[in-house]
Specification:
It comes from Desulforamulus putei DSM 12395. One of its GO terms (molecular function) is DNA binding. InterPro entries: CheY-like_superfamily, NreC/VraR/RcsB-like_REC, Sig_transdc_resp-reg_C-effctor, Sig_transdc_resp-reg_receiver, Tscrpt_reg_LuxR_C, WalR-like. Pfam families: GerE (PF00196), Response_reg (PF00072). By secondary structure, the protein is α/β, with parallel strands linked by helices. The protein folds into two domains: 125 residues, Response regulator (Rossmann fold); 63 residues, Orthogonal Bundle (Arc Repressor Mutant, subunit A), CATH 1.10.10.10. Helix content is 52%, strand content 12%. It has a five-stranded parallel beta sheet with strand order 2-1-3-4-5. The longest helix is centred in the middle third of the chain and has 15 residues. About 2% of the residues have low confidence.
Length: 218
């Protein structure tokens, strides 16, 4: 049986927290280990407890979800964070990507899509709504353009480019290993090298880089 996923719900609305708990409680692999009402509580909970994924609201009192994301990733970088928000705004998404978010979904998302996003993030995948990808790529391109910008992927080996393309397609380490006939450990080693060479910190940033540099089609 697949390992269970310890999930924390962070939202300042009790009704939303209760609704999310009811939706997720029917999934045998998802274990809701706690609920908090602000970003500071989310940081403190993740510091004290074993958490795999946080469903994080953006606008919360005391500390907002963006700052909470930054602090949690500093303390426990392996925790996956999914922003759950009513805001379809570029600045929120881009800030969260910089801090290592794994997923971004709007609060009108279908429950099945939310559950599949949680499972995907647990597998090491990332999710950005397709409708927002082009706008984020435009901003990413703007910030990385200029006289000193160079095609860093030219330093990648052929195998590393193959791995990067798979990451950009949203494939997990297990799926990449199977597709390329290598071990998951080798995939992880390639990813470490790729991140260092192209100057990114996580899979989402690497995927955006690959798409921007036209290493893979949208």
């Amino acid at each position: 049986m697949d390992q269970s996923i310890n999930l924390l719900i962070a939202d300042d609305h009790a009704l939303i927290r209760e609704g999310l708990r009811k939706i997720l409680s029917i999934e045998p692999r998802i274990n809701v280990v706690g609920e908090v009402a602000d970003g500071q509580q989310a940081v403190e909970f993740c510091t004290r407890n074993q958490v795999d994924i946080v469903l994080m609201d953006i606008n919360m009192p005391v500390m907002n979800g963006i700052e909470a994301c930054r602090r949690i990733k500093e303390i426990k970088p392996n925790i996956g964070i999914i922003a759950l928000t009513i805001h379809d705004q570029d600045e929120y998404l881009f800030e969260l990507i910089k801090y290592g978010i794994s997923g971004y979904v709007l609060k009108d998302v279908h429950p099945d899509q939310l559950i599949q996003t949680i499972y995907g993030v647990a597998r090491g995948e990332s999710f950005i709504p397709p409708a927002m990808t082009a706008r984020v790529l435009a901003e990413f391109s703007r910030l990385t353009s200029g006289d000193h910008h160079e095609r860093k992927h030219q330093a990648l080996t052929d195998r590393e480019i193959e791995v990067l393309k798979q990451v950009a397609k949203g494939q997990s380490n297990k799926a990449i290993a199977k597709a390329l006939y290598i071990s998951e450990k080798t995939v992880k080693n390639h990813l470490t090298s790729i991140f260092n060479k192209i100057g990114v910190e996580d899979r989402t940033q690497a995927a955006l880089y690959a798409i921007k540099e036209k290493l893979v089609d949208l």
